[in-house]
Design brief:
6 copies of one chain form a homohexamer.
Chain A lengths: L8 H10 L2 E6 L13 H12 L6 E3 L22 H17 L5 E5 L5 H13 L7 E3 H4 L1 H7 L9 H10 L9 H6 L8 E2 L2 E2 L21 H24 L2 H4 L6
Parallel strand pairs in A: 1-2, 1-3, 3-4
Antiparallel strand pairs in A: 5-6
Helix pairs in contact in A: 2-7, 3-4, 7-9
Chain lengths: 254, 254, 254, 254, 254, 254
């Protein structure tokens, strides 16, 4: 199926008739160190979503490009909205789709900072039986493969992200800067003192903005990640298409 | 300049150094009758924004694809967020840009339903001296030319919009449906009884979803509209680039 | 019928039994240039409402005197509340009336700055089937007559408003200042640069606060406008009284 | 001075130059039993305010007619807004006045249900040094006299209120219903069980809607109450006019 | 029954089966002059609640320790949350209990500043038929006894409060400071000028923070107050346990 | 030092003079399976806080007993407030402390569901330079020791929590039910399908409510965990006491 934005309202009427699941790509526009583009997270989400756009049971919605990124704002070009605003923007978009009869939606997400807001949105949509909208984070879906491919803890602009975007948008990556990203970066996310997470912003713990081992990245590994991710997403869509919406709703009190 | 999302944070640091004005495309995803795509409004905004993306003094931000469209929700595929959510999403995105030093932004808007929310956002940003962010509606900028080209009152999915999108995305237009859009459509916006606007939703006054004379549309006229619009937008950007931000702030009490 | 505020609760019980439509006058308290009173807009609304107060099918509610006027605040005496506060104040007042069984209300409005808030209130009241509450702006209802009487674009403290208030409250008008209002005023609303509305506040485009040709005003013309407006309002009330509330509710999805 | 709404903006400029205190009348539109008008509370506030309107140091603002009355909604004709909406409406109106240079305002209040909201508004305005806006409840100011005149606990539509409105608006009172108001009414406010206030709404404890001994009312006593109240209000305005705004602001931490 | 927090979820299942009423203790942490502990109000609420914890028909919920105390913030150690936050915290806690089947809850309150917020919470819970949750203020329940025991108007850290906490937590009272509390304190709450309450904060009218005659306090009198209060609370719980929830709901429109 | 609630305001004045760090215990009241008390999380937080209460540089605030637990509501006795309400309650409490001069606070947290809300509160308090308030989760501080002691992934009512509360409050644990908790429980948190977290509530993936291997618990291991946690917390408080508040504030834009 074409994406929703490219259909007429008459086409959409047919599409909603036959579709079983919606796909909403969400990401962010924020620093990803000196080698990767600011749009990394929404470009990744969009790429995974477009891979499943031709399915007959799936309608792909427009990509939401700005996410919850207050912790990146010391780095030029980072954009952010509040958690509340993002929650509402996503939740109301999904509610709109539900008004046309599609109450199962997979949020294909490219940004870790969105996860808490997406959980809140999904919880409320489920509680009120408006929609069932679990989040699919691409890095969770390919975690095993990433462990095989890279020797890193990672977390942001790491080997995994660098490889993926290199595969998807070679022209937007500056391979020469990957060493610098790693050199002035951090090994793992955050900064801990006696069990307390005291690093609130990325600038508290990484000078380049990167966290992980981006020097291990390659477009070939990115292709592997992408292929694996798409396969997982396809499987999820099939699983959800087959599940009745009644089975999706919140379980009642014991 | 490339668009913001395609820059690294290091590129963005340079870009913010030299840029004078930001451009934020906003639109909607909503019914535009049987002949035009749901994404009409954000595709139009994006097209005008991309035309000025190569200017050295301009940074183009990501397109915000879902707008304020509650009055279109009876038509399949229409998406909407509330006026408050949209206001916040836009306002916080512009505030982000201002944190990096760019406090003049033109909102290139493709959807009439967004105008009230954009005014509120702009007013508050100006009052607090965070940013000066006037809205540029493409149809206002080309109003004289549209009057020459078409014999319509119009207002939605009309000859003007149909021509523009036909020029920009021929593949998304269904020319055969333009007659039907007009035939089952309305001549002017809304429904008035003794001076009172009693039509709250488009479905209250148009069966096809269109308002105007789309049958007069042609891609050639769309090209004229686009060219004219781009010229106006360029002129606006130059005017704003030359204006000091102090001149932009709200005037003090008499 | 007497106005609601002058009835006892027992009288009100009877009144709600026989009434078909409520009338809520809304206006503002804000600058209207050097010749007209700050209360212009709520005085006008109140005058139109009181003209229909003696109808058996109509209950007139108290006048809401402060509206959405942030764009007038540089002029002494202007009062404003936020769009959200005004929307809630109006919406909750109408909901109260609906609790007593009257679910059709005409908002008789005297201030352009209120229109967006009133639309939002009315939309939500209709969506939730609490009440159907279209706005009646007096200037829309008398637009044709005003065009005959005056040669102006107008928009604020213009010949039309000046005439009306001169007729209604001669003692509050300073006729000698009408020339000055026009001389230091603007011809039309706002300030446009290359298609963009860049004037956010009235002070951005009018020194006197007036927009239009107030020197053309006369109390006789005001009387004509008033008479015409009252006739239109009466017709609207009759039309709405005859319409079943079911016919008023939002139309369902196509 | 004339009231604000009757001034032009030019007059207002002079008025704000010479004025020391603003006066904002607030009330409600709600049941006051079978004998008194629904507008009792805002009519009372308006009457006290208009008595001081001719002072040179005072500007009287428009009357806010709908207040916080959820506990009266089972009685026909009662209107209510939420505490939050009322707080905002009052607070933003007072903030507007402060923008023109008048930062001391007396809220002349006629409705007990508004008190909590008015305290919140006043606290916040004072904390932020926008304005100092204490509430003046007319019944508190005449409490001693009322104790002399009537033998009642009272609280709503009682002898005190009945007398006052009888004096102010004889045509709106139904004297024959005062006995009934008292007979089917309550002696004191609320309903208490073992120390707990369990009556949330007036209908929980009064059938007529009245609380007190309205049969003791007379227009002569109302005149006495009014005279006494006006004298107290005048004294308050003088006291406040003489007090510097610095003395009004919140005291600092110990 | 043990308190809720000490039960397992399995125990709670049984407890909710047999219980008829919940008890939610609420208080504050705020100055109570030089002789009493900051936790006075929540310690008092907790003490009354724990006295009824062993009833078979009652489940005691956790104590909410911080309340609405903005008027005490100039005194060291005072904590406050906004009225809105407190209302939500209480209301959502009670809603949680209602989800498990217990829809009658007595709020055992120790702080006057909470009363308005608790009323709002209770009103909304009742209107929506989620729960019936009247407030029990211990000082209201023992008002007659306090009048016998003390010769004071009182209001805060007075003889009544001092006696109670002396009885409950002797180790937290500094008896030597009671004279000073009274000497530098106020006789009655607030500061009135010509009928207007102009004292917004306690520091506006009491130097020590106390209001009343704490020098009259004794632990023996505190024991009497506590015993009386517990008896009243027991009686209230029995009364409420016997009342069907249908009888508790809001009465319908007349 | 005694805890804040037990001090008089005079004592508090001295305490704030000498203190360097505040401690705010936060937890929840929610199901912890058949063997552990509902108050587990706030009892744990309170126990760690009380262990450091005697430090001269530390002021311990009251325990906040109800947290963000919507995912446990199908289990009897669970209480929850919304993320927004909890964020505000915590944030305003910490702001209160800051008003008395203490702007460094450690949130000693016992509930995973609170973490997102606490991060938001802390971020905003830091951005506005009101306070620096990092969260200390006890399970993070003792993670290494827990890995040594137990062979579990865990996550809720697991061996670690069971041991701790067994040590702290032996009387509240039902050791016989630990086997059942584990038998009908889950090994790890949540439920994942093709990379998507589809289990929103605990009841979606654990029948008993427990997640982990509680049968490995013992009070002796709990004592070890507690001792280790207290040592870490002490070290954190010392580290923070030595750090100037200027070093704590958010880093500026690159």
């Amino acid at each position: 199926m074409p994406t929703l934005a490219t259909m007429t309202t008459e086409d959409a009427a047919d599409a909603f008739e036959s579709a079983a699941v919606g796909v909403l790509p969400t990401g962010s526009t924020e620093q990803h160190g000196p080698a990767l583009p600011l749009g990394m997270d929404h470009l990744a989400a969009e790429a995974f979503a477009s891979a499943v756009a031709d399915r007959d049971d799936t309608i792909v919605l427009p990509t939401i490009p700005v996410g919850v990124s207050p912790h990146h704002m010391q780095f030029d070009g980072s954009l952010t909205v509040s958690e509340e605003t993002f929650t509402n923007y996503v939740s109301e978009t999904i509610s709109s789709v539900a008004e046309h009869g599609l109450s199962k939606v997979v949020i294909v997400n490219g940004h870790g900072g969105n996860v808490s807001a997406l959980s809140r949105a999904a919880r409320e949509l489920r509680e009120t039986q408006v929609a069932y909208a679990p989040t699919w984070n691409w890095w969770d879906a390919v975690a095993d493969l990433a462990d095989e491919l890279f020797d890193e803890v990672g977390g942001h602009a790491d080997a995994s992200e660098s490889s993926l975007i290199w595969h998807l948008h070679e022209e937007l990556v500056e391979p020469d800067a990957l060493e610098d990203a790693e050199g002035r970066g951090a090994d793992g996310w955050g900064k801990t003192v006696h069990g307390s997470q005291i690093g609130f912003d990325t600038i508290d713990f990484t000078e380049s903005g990167a966290v992980g081992k981006p020097s291990q990245a390659s477009p070939e590994k990115g292709a592997q990640l992408y292929e694996e991710g798409v396969a997982e997403l396809e499987a999820l869509l099939e699983w959800l298409a087959d599940r009745s919406v009644e089975d999706c709703w919140q379980r009642s009190h014991r």
